Amino acid sequence: MSKGEKVKVNKVKDSPSTLTLFSKVEAGEVPDATQPDEKPLLETTTLWDYPKQSYGKTSKGNNKFQGVTPAFLIWNLVQRYTEPGDLIVDPMAGSGTTIDVCKEEGREVIGYDIAPRHPEVIQHDARNIPLPDESVDLVFIDSPYGDNVSYSDHPDCIGKISSEDERFYHELETVAVEAYRILKPGKVMGWLIGDQWVNKKFTPVGFKLYERLAKYFETVDVICVARRGQSSHTGVWHYRAKKFNFYLRGFKYLLIMRKPLSTQTKVKWAKYK
After folding, report:
1. Nearest-5° angle of CA 188, CA 223, CA 42?
2. For the chain, what is the domain count?
3. What domain range includes position 205?
4. Which of 34-38, 159-163, 236-240, 245-249 comes out lowest in average pLDDT?
5. In-domain check, residue 174
6. Which helix (H) or strand (E) element contains residue 112?
7. Cα–chain center distance at 3
8. What is the reported pTM?
9. Domain for residue 41, yes or no?
């Protein structure tokens, strides 16, 4: 098989709980960034890594934005779990990576953020999404991991609450309940989250969030996403990690969760009013 040769892969539907995967992917090595048809590889393991934040000639999101989402990650979710014309919602859309990827792939997309940094992102709080029940085909969320960085100046930003405070997880659970409400049964949510090590203390943010999500969703899989372009990935920080015997954060979790097809999951809506 030659480099860049296209391979057709049949759609897979082996049970009611398995979603349609994809119809066509690019095979071979990731092409050079100057090629106009550059696309990421469709990932096949639970370890995802990509050297750049974006791909192709058109930028996706703003790589100067604090906490910008890797575009290849959204592309992979879109290819596996949606079809052209499906509606994708990102309630914490930030600099608009999800919008840019989805528009290029022929998907309908709505992005919200409490402090938008993209002209097509609508100003709105993720804890109260203005969409009807069971109307969305995929939800993607890249939320704050705590208050270790400044995400916005908005006073209600969840990123102003420490991940050592249980209030932080209550607010994220409120977002999760909204995602559950707007998703169609059997559809998928992807949530990107990282752990925290601050002031000589480790906080397993990913585990604590997963415990909350598991109340409402079925687990599809948990992906390890390599962290690239981190401000701490410099020589001086590697020196400090060795000298003071701690670890730099090297990955994030991508929690892929599915809304059950049945209505057995009971959500106490009044708790969040």
Report:
1. 75
2. 1
3. 46-272
4. 34-38
5. yes
6. strand 108-113
7. 30
8. 0.80
9. no
Per-residue pLDDT tens digits for 92-129: 998 889 999 999 999 999 999 999 888 999 999 999 99
- C-alpha angle 43-44-50 in degrees, rounded to nearest 5: 30
Closest CA to 39 of 83, 74, 89, 2: 74
Give yes or no for residue 244 having a pLDDT over 70. Answer: yes
- Asked if residue 206 belongs to a domain, the reply is yes
- Collapse the DSSP code of 51 into the 3-class scheme (helix H, G, I; strand E, B; otherwise coil) and give the result: coil
Task: Say if strands 251-258 and 183-193 run parallel, antiparallel, or are unpaired.
Answer: antiparallel
Alpha helices in the chain (DSSP H): 71-81, 97-104, 166-182, 205-213, 235-243
What residues pair up with 253 in beta bridges, in sequence order? 193, 224
Position 67 confidence tier, pLDDT thresholds 50, 70, 90: low
Which DSSP letter does residue 159 get? G
Lookup: tokens for 194: 């990282």
